[in-house]
Amino acid sequence: MSIFQNLSLALLCLSFINTAAADSAQVSILQRKGAEWLLSRQGEDGSWLAQSGQPAFTALACIGLYDCPQYQDSAVKVKIDQALDYLVGAVKSDGGIYGSSTKAKAAPEGRVGRGGRGGGAASYAAYNTSICLTALAKFNRPGDLETCKKARAFLLDAQFDGEGHEVSSASAGGIGYGSKRIRADLSNTSWALEALYVTEHLDREPFNNDPAQAAKAGLAWGKALQFVSMCQNLAESNQSAWIKSAPAEDRGGFIYSPEDALKETTGGQSLRSYGSMTYAGLKSLIYAKVDKQDLRIKAAFDWVKKYYTLDENPGTGPAGYYYYLHLFGKTLTLFGEDSLVDAAGKTHDWKAELLGKIAETQQEDGSWLNARSGRWMESIPELSTAYCLMTLGLLK
Fold first, then answer.
1. pLDDT for 227-243, tens place per residue?
2. Which of 23, 174, 201, 296 is the most buried (most CB within 10 A)?
3. Number of C-beta neighbours around residue 247 at 10 A
């Protein structure tokens, strides 16, 4: 190699380093501004949006703040500890972490359920427990160990296993908002699987010496994988009745709930998949340790390439936009590819494009909110800001 070739290669490497440094600096700027706003919205009791009755909002805020520059400040760590204490204070006798049913008003993703296990109507016990457990596991405070173990056991018990649960076979293996008398959905199942994934170590020594508990968790993953597969428009691995009328151009995508799909099919119209659920499904397959060469993953990734966009949540438009951006970033990070070639053959530096979109939509005060759609509560800036800070943490 000539001296000129060596120089060109060195300059190219320097360019990559400078670009990465610039991106990292931009991430920190966005995080700092967003975190400053979010911290200003924290309640005296350490919570965010306590009036909602859903501790998951506080957990999402904590997760979003974890990777922000401010978290290195001891005063901010005290604030986060107070928030984590608030989550622990929401623990119920059954091990779940959720709020009162009289305060919760709307479900953050998908359709509102008719009841909540252990908490009455609209407590969304499984949803809240999944996110709160994920937050507590991320901060890994020694004093929260028993809380995490009980919350994990609660989620394993919340899975629809077909034994004594008043649900159809279409919900078997999945998890709903909390009740054992309503249908399971992919959004709640994916949150629960993430919580179970990040706490798998609690089934092993020195945290657990009961092999039956580990075996129960292993069976739960197998059942959950069956449910996730039933949410995918893929005839080769899904023999559900709704697949027969599913549109061919939707192949590989994921829907919210197989039970909903069956109802839609009966009514003469098939249920379409959409972006956030397809990424949730793909993420769940990855957490379940499904091989990259498995047809389910390959078909899902083909859907991703076909409908690649950061302008909307494909299939729902602006609804659930920031939840979609977070799932987009997390799933592609787990997938381990720095670039993505879409169905039209265009190569995307998806991290740079995602960063650009988050920067473009940040408000002057540092927050984010979905001004185009209030569906799934994204018009609440605390929620959308938490999603964006969580996403930015993936880009550092």
1. 999 999 999 999 998 89
2. 174
3. 12
Closest Cα partner for 290 from 228, 200, 233? 228
Amino acid identity for residue 320 in this structure: G
Query: Cβ–Cβ contacts within 10 Å for residue 360, how many?
Result: 8
SS (H, E, C) 164-229: CCCCCHHHCCCECCCCCCCCCEHHHHHHHHHHHHHCHHHHCCCCCCCHHHHHHHHHHHHHHHHHHH
60: Cβ contacts below 8 Å, ≥ 6 apart: 131, 135, 383, 386, 387, 390
Q: Among residues 185, 306, 175, which one has the least CA distance to residue 247?
A: 306
* Cβ contact 137:195 at 8 Å: yes
Give this prediction's pTM: 0.90
Please check whether residue 170 is in contact with residue 178, taking contact to mean a CB–CB distance below 8 angstroms: no
**Cα separation, 315 vs 313, whole angstroms:** 6
d(CA 261, CA 245): 10
Q: Is 370 exposed, middle or buried (0-12, 13-18, 19+ CB in 10 A)?
A: buried
Angle 125-139/74-89 helices, nearest 10 degrees? 140
Say which residue the tokens 């991703």 belong to. 304
User: Please, are residues 342 and 305 in contact by the beta-carbon 8 Å criterion?
Assistant: yes
Segment 308-357, tens digit of pLDDT = 999 999 999 999 999 999 999 999 999 998 999 999 999 999 999 999 99
Fill in the DSSP letter of residue 70: G
Q: Residue 313 forms beta bridges with which residues?
A: 317
Query: Residues in the chain, how many?
Result: 396
> 85 CB contacts (<8 Å, ≥6 apart)?
46
